[in-house]
Amino acid sequence: MLKVGLLGAGRIGHVHAVNIAGHMRSQLVAVSDVHQEAARTLADRHGAEARTSDAILNDPDIDAALIATSTDTHSDLIEAAARAGKAVLCEKPVDLSLERARACLRSVQNLGVPVMIGFNRRFDANFAGLKTSLRAGDIGRPELLSITSFDPAPPPVDYVKVSGGLFRDMMIHDFDMSNFIMDAMPVSVHAVGSSIVDPAIGAAGDVDTAVVTLTYADGRLAVIKNSRRAVYGYDQRVELLGSDGLLQAGNMLENTVVRSTATGVVSGKPTYFFLERYMAAYAAEWDAFLAACLDGAPVPVTLADGIAALAMAEAATESARTGRTVPVPG
Amino acid sequence: MLKVGLLGAGRIGHVHAVNIAGHMRSQLVAVSDVHQEAARTLADRHGAEARTSDAILNDPDIDAALIATSTDTHSDLIEAAARAGKAVLCEKPVDLSLERARACLRSVQNLGVPVMIGFNRRFDANFAGLKTSLRAGDIGRPELLSITSFDPAPPPVDYVKVSGGLFRDMMIHDFDMSNFIMDAMPVSVHAVGSSIVDPAIGAAGDVDTAVVTLTYADGRLAVIKNSRRAVYGYDQRVELLGSDGLLQAGNMLENTVVRSTATGVVSGKPTYFFLERYMAAYAAEWDAFLAACLDGAPVPVTLADGIAALAMAEAATESARTGRTVPVPG
Amino acid sequence: MLKVGLLGAGRIGHVHAVNIAGHMRSQLVAVSDVHQEAARTLADRHGAEARTSDAILNDPDIDAALIATSTDTHSDLIEAAARAGKAVLCEKPVDLSLERARACLRSVQNLGVPVMIGFNRRFDANFAGLKTSLRAGDIGRPELLSITSFDPAPPPVDYVKVSGGLFRDMMIHDFDMSNFIMDAMPVSVHAVGSSIVDPAIGAAGDVDTAVVTLTYADGRLAVIKNSRRAVYGYDQRVELLGSDGLLQAGNMLENTVVRSTATGVVSGKPTYFFLERYMAAYAAEWDAFLAACLDGAPVPVTLADGIAALAMAEAATESARTGRTVPVPG
Amino acid sequence: MLKVGLLGAGRIGHVHAVNIAGHMRSQLVAVSDVHQEAARTLADRHGAEARTSDAILNDPDIDAALIATSTDTHSDLIEAAARAGKAVLCEKPVDLSLERARACLRSVQNLGVPVMIGFNRRFDANFAGLKTSLRAGDIGRPELLSITSFDPAPPPVDYVKVSGGLFRDMMIHDFDMSNFIMDAMPVSVHAVGSSIVDPAIGAAGDVDTAVVTLTYADGRLAVIKNSRRAVYGYDQRVELLGSDGLLQAGNMLENTVVRSTATGVVSGKPTYFFLERYMAAYAAEWDAFLAACLDGAPVPVTLADGIAALAMAEAATESARTGRTVPVPG
Is the pLDDT score of D330 beyond 80? Predict the structure, then answer.
């Protein structure tokens, strides 16, 4: 039984609280948030206490910290929690600064505690199933990867301004997915971006539509497409061409109802957004973290994985700005 | 907050226990079972007490009884619970005897407590979605209904012998589904059955494959197909032709992975059996029961609904035996 | 090179003319029709002559007759053509009278000429592919067959009155399909019909919606569903459950375009009617007839096959009228 | 009635011959080929004459020339045919040299004869259907286009050596498709390529796998993926994200049979290669050419369209070689 303190009682904190409290092998002991009221409400719902994050990290009875606070606090909290001997599951991204994230890794890497980054999509049954099939050799050697990742609607411009930009905020998930599928970092990144969905996003210095091409040392290629707006719902697909075939992982649909009328054949839309699509993935992620903490299983998504995705995001940001292909540090 | 006693700690009792204990508006207070050890294990897991069913029904602090015991006890327990003032959710079928079920209805109908029968499939998002679309007028007037319902593998012959036969045990779900979709009872039933999957089922006096045709007073038709064996998984589909189109509700798949190779294009199989397919439906069913108990919403599946399905099963059993079309009592 | 006379220059005659004239191994020599002008127009288009049917059947240079005239002339023309030594491909049905069709068979069976009935659906790539998979053992032993066959719109009531009724006119294709797939005649037929699509069809003594259940000597079952109206297009599907799996053959779609918007995901409708759906099947049928005539291949759909389907249609008509299950003569 | 001379009796010449001879509004008069025997065989099959290409172009009775010879002869033959007053349909590409193609355009543009380039995919019902839906405003303003185009198997290396390279030989179809869909040329092209399918292709100086990103003046983006090998068959898909939704056009399948067994759910593969997939598109292309020649309809794919695609291929070739983004001349 893992005793857990949850730092951050926002939307994603609520998701984690349900999984922590509902799992037979973990217990939600305490919740903190910069808004004390939010912490109290969430804590009450699950029979936990509302505390400060310091109080959580200093409590010797707490085994693990789940960090679901704002991005700018991640590195500090990872270091503090790890130094306090807590196992850590931290939401992505590690940091908006690659340098700071690397320093964080140096700080904690010899402390002997599990530190996991919350790239939840690796635990989606569809993407995990694709990976399983690839590992089984179903399509031979991978050659060309395509990732499509569209959000249903753009975020507020105020969020965009502090997000670190599309490549660090949104495509970072896809960079991690490419690393997960390809089992390697690319050697170079080429990115083009555009603010065609919402000019205000362009005015804020960001893009809302982007295409990134990744080149691997052995000649494999990958392409990632992002858009901040797909009015039909969250569109999350992965497709991998290999020497012996093609693997595709598609969207989950609202339901299986098909309606055929004189005007056409209509089927269900993709589930609306990440909470609907990835609810089961968050539960599987928590299960995997428990296995790492309680059973000694390897940490499935390491801090180094988080830094790798961040390095790719940084390269993509530079490429989109300069128009040049940017090498990725080995 | 509804305080609930669960009668029956078998496989389906476990499913209900999770939903009762996990819902914000209900609390699992006590569990009973003919095997005390089973009751204790399940009660412990959810912080409830193991008791006898009498103790549960006599506890004035308990608001509702969920009856998940063997079929032969259903009518007696419904009556006892309702007389004790408990709201009741009872697993299907009400009884193997239509006469006994009708007597049960007479006993409880004036007691003023909600009594709901657990036809879980009405709460499946796919079938409920089909019904919603029908109600919205998407396909005009319904004309021809088809229900396909195949189990992945036949039950043990010992079970078959006490099951009441395929029509009462398995197709009863589909009879209720036809009533749910068509909003009417048929006027006659024609059934053919065969024991082609397993001759031992035939030797036990039952069938394992059956086709039933329903005729409605206004000329509408329905056909139900059952098989005890579909090696690819639980196959649960509904299809409705109407004056303005067709509605289809299909299977849930394991995942969305598609694998294209030189030998073909392979996609996921249907989820294996009812626990996988209908897990979300059981939760939605519980939620609907809570709405009936706590919010005064109408009971969505009544005892009369359970009797209607049973009457159709009885008619089908007779039709399959005699080869004749059998009228359904109005 | 087979020299062919075409009897009948109506809609289906036009389809056959294109296939005869376009095939490398056949030549369209002459066309007849009760409307001489229709014969002349069609003949001119393909460089053939317009003649009377007598002139065609008496021409020793003509090897084969394709009979695409009205149903009431089929038996007479089959006999006349076969006696004149012509190979015969005759459109379905052989006759509306089972007795007359049997007499026709007795007349021609010893004449030594190929006589084929035009059950075109056996040559549809989807249904033929299903049969190929069945023969390959992909799903083991067949157990339960379902045929769905809906027309896009009901025919004029004047046509209905002379059609012989839905079972002889429309479902006869499905009876042949069941024989093709199951490789056996059923031992009994149960039919229910309804005139729910168009009351005028009921007033004319026919049904427009029907469900037929077939029982086989070895316990296999089949169900056929017909409707005269599916506003979304021609709906032609076959589904076969076997001991090792399920085979399904579905509709051809207009195109593969899928449109996802805020209101739903819309894909192409089935091709509109039989000419669109079965155009390739008619060409494959002609190719198979040429193989029977020129290469000594067995006739793939015999006159006896035509009579078998007609016997089932007669039994279904009686069952729908009486409400009783009707045995099929062995 | 258009009288047509066919130059080139190879594989694609055979496809065109069937369409020319089979169309009610055209007649195949003569066929030429560098291999006289090939010309004679094809001409005989369709009742045409075998001639030299000079004899065809000098025959005043011939209205149009279909050029299906080797690429290096295209420009010369287009010029000769147009000067002889023939309408021209020429297979893609116009030329491997952009300069020569432009000279060809200058030569013929004032001659007043229709000159059409054979980008057959524009006439595929799926891609044409996507374009129709786009024009109808179904997805609003287009933002992000994706084209997937995989061949089933790589060509012989000897062919690769004279092909002009993947971008001119294979992706040129996709460049034209992007122009067709986007109704604009991009302002810049970025390409990466790899010879991961077959090292011999790399040794011959070409690539077999490539990703190209196109940037448009108004901020729209497009990505094209090519591979010379998809072992499951010809994979030809287009996907377009717009402000109001997504359009997808997919593959044609061998048939609609779906086989569900204990090992999975297997459906038909894509049709094998371009002749299977695009047979109907070639016929529609010919029909459109006839409309331009006989009805005064605008030429649907002009010589300028052919040059635009070639200019993009040249830019992509340079980008893949240098690693730099290459502007496309306006």
Answer: no
H-run or E-run covering D267: strand D264-267
Say if residue A34's pLDDT is above 80.
yes
* D109 touches D306 (CB < 8 A): no
Mutate to test the interface with B, among A19, A240, A253, A256 (most CBs of B within 10 A): A256
Nearest to B289 by CA among B102, B85, B66, B93: B66
Tell me which residue in C22, C130, C268 faces D257 most closely, judged by beta carbons: C130
CATH architecture classification, D122-278+308-327: 2-Layer Sandwich (3.30)
What's the pLDDT score for residue C62?
98
pLDDT of residue B46: 84
CATH 3.30.360.10 positions along chain D are 122-278+308-327
Percent of chain D whose predicted confidence (pLDDT) is above 90? 94
Which tens digits make up the pLDDT trace of B44-78?
888 899 999 999 999 999 999 999 999 999 999 99
pLDDT at B321 over 80: yes
pLDDT, chain A, mean: 96
Candidates B232, B261, B265; nearest CB to D261: B232
H-helix or E-strand containing D270?
Answer: none
Q: Is D239 within 8 Å of D221 (Cβ atoms)?
A: no
In terms of Cβ atoms closer than 10 Å to its own Cβ (0-12, 13-18, 19+), residue A184 is middle
Residues of A with CB under 8 A from a CB of B: 22, 24, 45, 125-126, 129-130, 133, 138-139, 244-252, 254-262, 268
Whether residues A255 and B125 touch (CB distance < 8 A) is answered with: yes
User: 3.30.365.10, 3.30.360.10, 3.40.920.10, 3.90.550.10: which CATH number matches B122-280+308-327?
Assistant: 3.30.360.10
How big is chain D, counted in residues? 330
Chain B residues in contact with A22 (beta carbon < 8 A): 22
Q: What per-residue confidence (pLDDT) applies to D276?
A: 85
pLDDT in tens, A185-212: 999 999 999 999 999 999 999 999 999 9
- Separation CA D171–CA D264 (nearest Å): 35
**Chain D positions in Cβ-Cβ contact with residue C252 (cut-off 8 Å):** 256
- Give start-end residues of each CATH 3.40.50.720 domain in chain B: 2-113
Considering chain B, tell me which residue range(s) the CATH 3.30.360.10 domain(s) occupy: 122-280+308-327
Torsion of CA C254, C255, C257, C263, to 10 degrees: 10
3-state secondary structure of D307: helix
Distance from CA of D64 to the nearest CA of B (A): 42
* Assigned token pair, A205: 């210095």
β D115-118/C209-215 pair status: unpaired
Distance in angstroms (rounded) separating the CA atoms of residues D196 and D209: 7
Distance from CA of A121 to the nearest CA of D (A): 23
For domain D2-113, the CATH class is: alpha beta
The partner residue sitting opposite A139, judged by closest CB among B254, B256, B261, is B261
Tokens of A104: 């964080």
| DSSP reduced 3-state for B222 | strand
Touching partners of C (3+ C-beta pairs < 8 Å): A, B, D
Pick D194's closest partner by Cβ from A197, A219, A245.
A219
CATH number given to C122-277+308-327: 3.30.360.10
- Spatial contact of C247 and D257, defined as CB atoms under 8 Å apart: yes
SS3 C90: strand
Instruction: Look over chain C and give the mean of its residue pLDDT values, rounded to a whole number.
Output: 96
What is the model's pLDDT at position B330?
64
- Predicted confidence band of residue C186 (pLDDT cuts 50, 70, 90): very high
Question: What single DSSP character describes residue A269?
Answer: P
Angle at D204 between CA D202 and CA D210, to 5 degrees: 40
Report in angstroms the alpha-carbon separations of D110 from A163, D83, D106.
57, 10, 8
